[in-house]
Design a protein that fits this description.
Length: 274
């Protein structure tokens, strides 16, 4: 099943498999249920008209997006190369406890086809294509979507304590195109693809798989929810292993296309505000 969120004349509205659900349906309410009850509810709900309208990010304003870092060997190596304290990332990669950080509220998440941004005070900005897992209040993985954890690598490289400024700013988090509901064991080997187009030419592209992740999604969820409750569910970005080299930085009007399994998202890069 695919959950999508659409802009209509009456406001945002959810759909399942291309058909609108009732107007008062909320993702937060759905994620209060256990996984089996959630799927049964969606299966038995009456469907309305075929879904139309602009696609919104598949998240609600008060949902939280968290992120995990250094979950792939390629990510560890890239962050070592950018950092003035490279051994920090070796220690994180090898440690039992993962790196976890807050990324965005749902109200700040960028929808498909809407602009992502690069910081005005950064010279080295990259997209980070990631599997984003959706977790209910009972700590169960119920689905996934594609995500872009846009990052300023030079800011984080200057000092690891600058990570919030490198990762959390307007236009730095994009999710789409919808939530693919699935079993947790179905996300262990999903293909991740990234392509950046600049002036109708491919400026960068790469491909990886979630099977290359050192830490499993259930492990990451376990640490995130160990001392933190999410009554209406939570979204967790699981890290990237497609990292452009030092010669690449995002530029205004680049088009960033990401595929994670069956979920896709494309966004244009906007310039910094004047």
């Amino acid at each position: 099943m695919l959950l999508t969120r659409h802009q209509t004349k009456q406001g945002a509205r959810w759909a399942v498999d291309g058909f609108f659900l009732w107007r008062d349906f909320t993702l937060g309410g759905l994620l209060e249920l256990r996984r089996d009850a959630m799927l049964q509810t969606l299966t038995t709900l009456p469907r309305a008209d075929a879904a139309t309208g602009e696609l919104l990010a598949p998240i609600e304003p008060l949902h939280e997006v968290w992120a995990a870092g250094v979950t792939y060997l390629r990510s560890r190596d890239a962050r070592r190369a950018e950092s003035q304290v490279a051994d920090v990332y070796d220690r994180v990669y090898d440690a039992a406890r993962p790196e976890l950080f807050f990324k965005a509220l749902g109200s700040r998440v960028v929808a498909p086809e809407m602009p992502i941004r690069i910081r005005a005070d950064s010279r080295w900005n990259v997209p980070e294509p990631e599997l984003v897992i959706v977790v209910n209040r009972h700590r169960e993985i119920v689905g996934y979507c594609a995500g872009n954890d846009v990052s300023s690598r030079d800011i984080e490289g200057e000092n690891p304590l600058y990570l919030p400024q490198a990762k959390v700013y307007n236009g730095s988090c994009a999710l789409g195109h919808g939530i693919l509901l699935c079993e947790s064991d179905q996300i262990g080997d999903l293909t991740i693809r990234l392509q950046v187009r600049r002036k109708n030419q491919v400026a960068f592209e790469g491909e990886a798989t979630t099977a290359q992740m050192k830490r499993t999604p259930p492990e990451l969820v376990g640490y995130l929810t160990r001392e933190l409750n999410f009554p209406n569910g939570v979204f967790l970005m699981t890290g990237t292993c497609i990292v452009p080299g030092e010669e690449f930085t995002l530029q205004p009007d680049d088009i960033v296309h990401i595929e994670v399994g069956a979920s896709t998202i494309s966004n244009r890069v906007a310039g910094s505000p004047g």
